[in-house]
Amino acid sequence: MIVEIVNTGTELMLGRVLNTHQQWLCARLADLGCVVSRQVAVADTAREIERAVRESLSRADVVIATGGLGPTSDDLTRAVLAEALGRELVEDAAVRAHIEEFFARRNRPPPPGTLVQARVPEGALVLPNPNGTAPGLIIEIAPNPMRVGGARGWLVMLPGPPRELQPMFDDSVAPWLLRTLPLRSGFVCRTFRLHGIGESSVQDRIAGPLEAMVAAGLDVGYCARPGRVDVRFRAEGESAGRLVDDAARVLDQHVGAFVFGTGEEELETVLVRRLTAAGCTVAIAESCTGGIIAHRLTNVPGASAVLLAGWVTYSNHAKQALLGVGADTLGRHGAVSDPVAREMAEGARRATRADYAMAVTGIAGPGGGTADKPVGTVFIAVAGPDETHVWKMFNPWDRATFKEVTANQAMDGLRRMLCGLPLEPRDVRQLVTPKPL
Ligand code: ATP
Question: Please, what is the angle between helix 338-352 and helix 316-323, to 10°?
Answer without folding.
Answer: 40
